[in-house]
Specification:
Strand content of chain A: 25-35%
CATH architecture of chain B: Alpha-Beta Complex
Order of helices and strands of chain B: HHHEEEEEHHEHEHHHEEEHEEE
Distance between the termini of chain A: 45 Å
Helix content of chain A: under 10%
Structural class of chain A: mainly beta
Distance between the termini of chain B: 67 Å
Oligomer: heterodimer
Largest sheet of chain A: 6 strands, antiparallel
Number of helices of chain A: 1
Radius of gyration of chain B: 25 Å
Helix content of chain B: 25-40%
Largest sheet of chain B: 6 strands, mixed
Number of domains of chain B: 1
Radius of gyration of chain A: 16 Å
Largest interface: A-B, 24 and 30 residues
CATH class of chain B: Alpha Beta
CATH topology of chain B: phage-related protein like fold
Strand order of the largest sheet of chain B: 6-13-10-7-9-8
Structural class of chain B: alpha+beta
Number of strands of chain A: 11
Number of helices of chain B: 10
Order of helices and strands of chain A: EEHEEEEEEEEE
């Protein structure tokens, strides 16, 4: 709270490269879980991977379901947590809601929010970087329907865009992790 | 049976909305827009507490780190106190510096309504009214929900962070020197007079200019007798009920939104020039599209509003528990204790 410091315009980006027409694309808006984000020391940047909590609020990352049949849906942020239309300075009416494109929609997206230390090739599956930076995507450690939720499939290797930002392009998808039967 | 007039209105609207003729389509859309604007200003209580001002792109202030629209406004500067000195003494310097604040914008959307045009023709009632009601309720409710939420936040309801504490009722805000949310007392002459002390009790000495109350609580005022409010008013309220009127020098805005303004609670707001802003970047617009026999439309607006002065609002919860003594606007307990 207080006065916000937004991300610089070209540091964190989401480009919806291909997909349905803008006015009918599958996006989703919900309140961020400020308390959980603050507690975990997480933030959400534009292009970052988000998912819903059981309370219907957005958090950074997309944890795998594990023993539960609850499988978080990947959502890619259209705004950053502290962008002026998603949050606001004290005393302002605006903000309090974030939105993102839903990972199960037919999108090819490019994002700055990925583990750039790795090299990506087309057709490689992507998962949430839960062990690293929440909100980044990274290479999946195993096959689909394994230990991780698959959130995308690489379409183009990472490359600098026209603004000099390194972006990874992939088709969004949602392949939930395996559910361990409850004994 | 529906009336011939209603049938004509519905058919004309559908014909206009689905027409390829730009003039007819504009006429139909203008009909919706015109109605929306008038009713919105009458019915949204937030707009009555802080009258809206339309702005254009030329009024926006550019930011280097974001393309999101922002308006920057100056805030009244503080001035150090004057002091007495003996002759021959020179004044202390004070560098001139004034605070500023930003007004940020977002968008309010209605749902996108869609239908087969032929099913719209089968309604008995005026379909324009149905559609307008849906869009109005959604947009107005969201404006008011956010405005009352911000009011409560400033009055001490806590914020959106982990550090936010419980509701800070009956505690003094050190930044304003008074409590902004008190509980206690009953709705009688003494209680209402004590309510009026809320805003002037702060170190900024503002006066209330509007009270906001719901249409349940206001009947407690109607119940006040001759000994409380005088014979003529008591009789007039008993006969005619409570219309919006001036009580203790300020107009009372009465809302039916009891989910937003709690029963037994009364909010007070100071004059708009001390309160904040209500800027309209995109006035309410109904976007309409038709494709073959399907039509769809939705309403949207983009506003930026603030309560930029934290001493400009206060709230009283009457009949709080068994406490009947009017509450103290400067309680000993302080926020953060």
């Amino acid at each position: 709270m207080g006065n916000l410091v937004p991300s610089q315009m070209f540091d964190h980006n989401l480009d919806v490269v291909k997909g349905p027409s803008l006015m009918h694309r599958l996006d989703f808006a919900a309140d961020p879980d400020y308390a959980a984000l603050e507690l975990a020391g997480d933030t959400i940047h534009e292009g970052g991977l988000m998912s819903l909590t059981a309370a219907g609020k957005l958090i950074a990352g997309c944890p795998s379901g594990g023993a539960s049949i609850v499988q978080p849906m990947p959502i890619f942020a259209i705004q950053g947590l502290n962008d002026f239309d998603a949050n606001s300075d004290v005393g302002n009416l605006s903000g309090g809601v974030m939105s993102g494109v839903v990972g199960t929609g037919g999108f090819e997206i490019a994002t700055t929010e990925f583990d750039s230390a790795l090299t990506y090739a087309p057709n490689e599956l992507l998962a949430s970087d839960e062990a690293g930076t929440k909100g980044w995507v990274t290479k999946a450690a195993g096959p689909a329907y394994g230990a991780e939720t698959i959130v995308g499939c690489v379409s183009r290797p990472a490359a600098a865009n026209a603004d000099g930002a390194n972006m990874l392009a992939f088709w969004t998808m949602f392949l939930p992790s395996a559910v361990t039967p409850t004994p | 049976m529906r009336s011939a007039e209603t049938r004509m209105i519905n058919e004309t609207l559908v014909a206009g909305l689905t027409s390829g003729d730009n003039f007819l389509q504009k006429e139909a859309i203008d009909g919706l827009n015109d109605y929306l604007r008038v009713t919105m200003r009458e019915d949204g209580f937030a707009r009555r507490l802080c009258p809206p001002v339309n702005i254009t792109a030329a009024d926006l202030d550019r930011q280097v780190d974001t393309a999101k629209p922002v308006v920057v406004r100056d805030k009244e500067p503080n001035s150090p106190v004057a002091y007495s000195v003996p002759f021959g003494t020179t004044p202390m310097n004070h560098y001139i510096k004034g605070p500023r604040y930003r007004i940020m914008f977002d968008r309010i959307l209605s749902r996108r309504f869609n239908a087969d045009v032929n099913t719209l023709l089968t309604y008995d009632m005026d379909i324009r009214q149905i559609l307008n009601d849906y869009i109005l309720k959604d947009i107005m409710g969201e404006e008011d929900r956010k405005y009352i939420g911000l009011t409560d936040w400033i009055c001490g309801a806590g914020g959106r962070t982990v550090a936010a504490g419980p509701v800070l009722i009956n505690q003094t805000d050190p930044s304003t020197g008074s409590s902004k949310w008190v509980s206690g007392g009953t709705i009688d002459r003494e209680g209402l007079a004590n309510m009026m002390k809320g805003l002037p009790s702060s170190i900024r000495h503002l006066n209330p200019s509007t009270a906001l109350v719901n249409n349940i609580t206001v009947w407690d005022v109607v119940a006040l007798g001759r000994e409380q409010i005088g014979g003529n008013l008591a009789e007039e309220l008993f006969v005619n009920g409570f219309a919006e009127r001036i009580i203790m020098g300020i107009p009372w805005v009465i809302t039916i939104k009891t989910d937003l303004v709690a029963t037994n609670s009364i909010y007070q707001y100071t004059e708009p020039k001390y309160l904040g802003d209500f800027l309209i970047l995109d006035d309410i617009t109904v976007s309409t599209k038709n494709e073959n026999y399907m039509i769809e439309f939705f309403g949207y607006e983009s506003i930026g509003a603030t309560i930029a002065n934290d001493a400009a609002v206060c709230r009283v919860d009457f009949n709080y528990g068994a406490q009947v003594t009017p509450p103290d606007w400067k309680p000993a307990a302080v926020w953060g204790d």
